[in-house]
């Protein structure tokens, strides 16, 4: 039996490519270093936006900055991948679009991990976990 | 002629297509030459008449081998063309070559525009490169794909599978209903000597096929091929000089609305085909009920489902019921669909094959697969996600 306090390690099904970090996206991909997911938010109209940009598309304000979110989300769409696109892939894995609690339409494509792939359903409540690889913290989601 | 929607002054003067195969012993440029020669002969034009060339997305060989191996300048040089106007570029809708050509002839930039789409994806795969897989083999990925690829969502099958899962959950469409797009295409392909898959396909075969990315199975995905299709678009004034029966553009559109990536759409089952449909019907007095044959993009079967709704052939969420049993979309149904077998059975000619087939059907030149009720109006749709274009073609 493992220690009940031990943090489980979550991983994508395959290593796969990592995002190329730049000035605009770095905050997002390193956000998980302190265990918190962040998105850009407009300081003028409070609109959350993703992917990151230089301007708020709602009010055209440029007072935008990363802000922490709860990490809670709902599965909006789900697909179980069975095709071995790259060598080494053996098991089916779950790709999902999740909607963050903070705003309708604030979506991420991600993987749902820590659950049998066939058990993930639309409407399911999930929360963020991170896979740390090199200089990137990939936000994955597990059932709540 | 109208002055409001100038595409009505554009006609398709000629169509041509190379061999279509899973591994042809001809280069992309050779296939493009084959298609161009066939289109010229079909129109009764020569290379001296062609003063414009348009393609999409332009040469992509360095980034995605086989996806688009031939540039405008390649075919211009190869065939000694002298051009008053040319255009190709990836930041435009999949139908952009056709749309741009209509605008070019309508505004007098050119008289006869050669449009082409060439793919050598089957050969590229045979050489170990899969152009439809983004980011494979790379360590880092930037741009818009960084939001999918790191999560092993390598293929459009994954992205479309997500939208399809949501649609089926929301509207109750079944796999048995979705199968009708594939089964109809296969039956039609059996009358097309150039089709890739012509073996009979049953509902059981479909339901037992291996999953690629749920709910999409192998038979929901189109077939990468080597092929080139050429479409010559000319000003309607030139019709008397042509050998062919002219087919006129009644309307064409390729908008970009909503979010740029499908996963950011507030409503995950909506796509750019809907504004394309809205625009299309605003540009004509015709209505969906006037359409005699539909050639709707089927890179994945589910995209055709969405196009049926986007172009108003049935209501939102009603496509599953509309295609159930396949009768309505069969050759003798109210809306014959993808009469050459679509990309699902006749190969991924990437949108141009639908124009080619629409023209043959409107002219009455589709051979064994010619519809018994001669169509006068055809709808053509290309694309999925944020890339969507739609056209109405008529035989006056």
UniProtKB/TrEMBL annotation, chain A:
Task: Name the source organism.
Answer: Pseudomaricurvus hydrocarbonicus
Q: What is this protein called?
A: DNA-binding protein
What keywords does the record list, in alphabetical order? Answer: DNA-binding
UniProt cross-references to Pfam families, sorted A to Z: OB_ChsH2_C (PF01796), zf-ChsH2 (PF12172)
Gene Ontology MF: a single term = DNA binding
Q: Where is the ChsH2 C-terminal OB-fold domain?
A: 67-131
Q: Which domain of life is it from?
A: Bacteria
The protein's matches in PANTHER family, at most eight in alphabetical order, are given as: BLR3430 PROTEIN
**Segments forming domain ChsH2 rubredoxin-like zinc ribbon:** 30-63
What InterPro entries does the record point to? ChsH2_C, ChsH2_Znr, NA-bd_OB-fold, Thioester_dehydratase-like
Automatic annotation (TrEMBL), chain B:
What InterPro entries does this protein map onto? Thiolase (IPR002155), Thiolase-like (IPR016039), Thiolase_C_2 (IPR055140), Thiolase_N (IPR020616)
The organism's superkingdom is given as Bacteria
N-terminal signal peptide: none
Q: By its UniProt entry, which Pfam families does this protein fall under?
A: Thiolase_C_1 (PF22691), Thiolase_N (PF00108)
Q: Thiolase C-terminal domain: from which residue to which, for each copy?
A: 263-391
- Boundaries of every Thiolase N-terminal domain copy: 23-199
Cross-referenced CDD domains, in alphabetical order? SCP-x_thiolase
Which PANTHER family does UniProt cross-reference here? ACETYL-COA C-ACETYLTRANSFERASE (PTHR42870), NON-SPECIFIC LIPID-TRANSFER PROTEIN-LIKE 2 (PTHR42870:SF1)
* Name the record gives this protein: Thiolase family protein
The organism named in the record is: Pseudomaricurvus hydrocarbonicus
